UniProtKB/TrEMBL annotation:
<feature type="transmembrane region" description="Helical">
    <location>
        <begin position="45"/>
        <end position="67"/>
    </location>
</feature>
<feature type="domain" description="TPM">
    <location>
        <begin position="141"/>
        <end position="204"/>
    </location>
</feature>
<keyword id="KW-1133">Transmembrane helix</keyword>
<protein>
    <recommendedName>
        <fullName>TPM domain-containing protein</fullName>
    </recommendedName>
</protein>
<dbReference type="InterPro" id="IPR007621">
    <property type="entry name" value="TPM_dom"/>
</dbReference>
<dbReference type="Pfam" id="PF04536">
    <property type="entry name" value="TPM_phosphatase"/>
</dbReference>
<keyword id="KW-0472">Membrane</keyword>
<feature type="transmembrane region" description="Helical">
    <location>
        <begin position="87"/>
        <end position="108"/>
    </location>
</feature>
<keyword id="KW-0812">Transmembrane</keyword>
Amino acid sequence: MAHPPSMSETDRARVGAAVTAAESATAGEIVTILGSRSDDYRDVALAWSALVALLALTVIALFPDFYLGLYDRLTGTWASEWTPGRLLGLAALVAALKFGGMWLILLWRPLRLALTPAPIRHGRVHARALALFRVGAERRTTGRTGILIYLSLAEHRAEIIADEAIASKVEAEVWGDALAALLAELKAGRMADGLIAAVDRVGAVLARHFPRGADDVNELPDRLIEV
């Protein structure tokens, strides 16, 4: 997976400092991850290509004379006799050309993403966030108090996933304010400010439910992780 547009060292430092500040009042451990996109959506490109090929076959079935006449004009023949085998061959050729043409068009990633239904995009972002959470935060703290803030740039979508101790006390809907603040700043072109806003709000919630103890140690990295 390609790396996301690089943040400046200053912005990375600002996000890391925000995590450190938020964790100064809580036993929770905040992990921030920035990704360029959550999936390549190649299966979506295949589905669109297959649909276009199927539509082409349907059009041939509905208007066979048009395609037969077009073939005759292109090949310079006149009123040639069409056997079932030749008909099937023409249909297969048209379907293959339509499939290949659509596949080539969808090699352009922005169009492929635009043609991906929103529920699929949202599901892929969640799946990617969950995979990263399991690797980078789940059960990696003594009190099971890790929490992931994940931003996927291509989809303009973010996810917050909490470890079991946090999830047992804080409903998932509570993180909606942090996600809204993140995406509002992102839409304005302020990526670092969005992550910092989310970190601040998550830290405030964690501080209420999991105040920092005198013997608390930093168990997960504060720096922004880019994947």
